[in-house]
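Every protein is a chain of amino acids, and every chain bends into a shape of its own. The fold becomes a row of whole numbers, each drawn from a learned catalogue of backbone shapes. The protein below has been through that process, and both of its lines are reproduced in full.
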Amino acid sequence: MVTLPLFPLSIVVFPGEELKLHIFEPRYRQLVHDCIKDNLTFGIPPYFEEKSLKYGTELRLMEISKTYPDGKLDIQAKGIGYFVIDDFFRIMHGKLYPGGNIQRMMWTGNADVVYSTRIVSLIADLYSTMKIKNIQIPIAKDYRTYHLAHKIGLNLEQELQLLTIPDEVDRQIFIKDHLEHLLPIVKDAENLRKRAELNGHFQNIIPPDV
């Protein structure tokens, strides 16, 4: 069991993901300075809809990008692991910020190329349907699921569920199933939009050969 400084936020961060944060509260400015001084990692447990803090991602502070005259900070951190919280402390002893006793969990990164190829194809179809052009579609052999998690329409609960899946192949299956469910819904919505736009216009409809 490990005691870790905690920074609850209404986001899900994945192991391997890089994160930029603006730190303005005094308690979390203290957390950042303690991480530097004592070479500590810290955790971000997702907190939303007042649900209890059970899981989180361990991060390592990579750099302080900017320090403002009033003490606020811009930082860059990187997710390095996933954990389960055994005991949550609203305030760690002698500190301003929260903390907790955590257990580090396995989070593997070996992907299946067949699933990778299928997922890339689904994303390309989804982005084409939605006319999304400013997000680069990943190359199948290069990406991992944490590269995609915030770009495929998962809600916070689904992202948290993805975080708690320890094996990369199982995470690929989760994403593949999500996209296969989402894509027909998006296509139906797009077809509805097109039909609505045709209202009042002359339509060139080819009759069936009966």
Observations:
- Residues 113-197 form one domain.
- The mean pLDDT is 89.
- Strands lie at 2-5, 18-23, 42-44, 55-67, 73-89, 99-105.
- DSSP finds five helices and six strands in the chain.
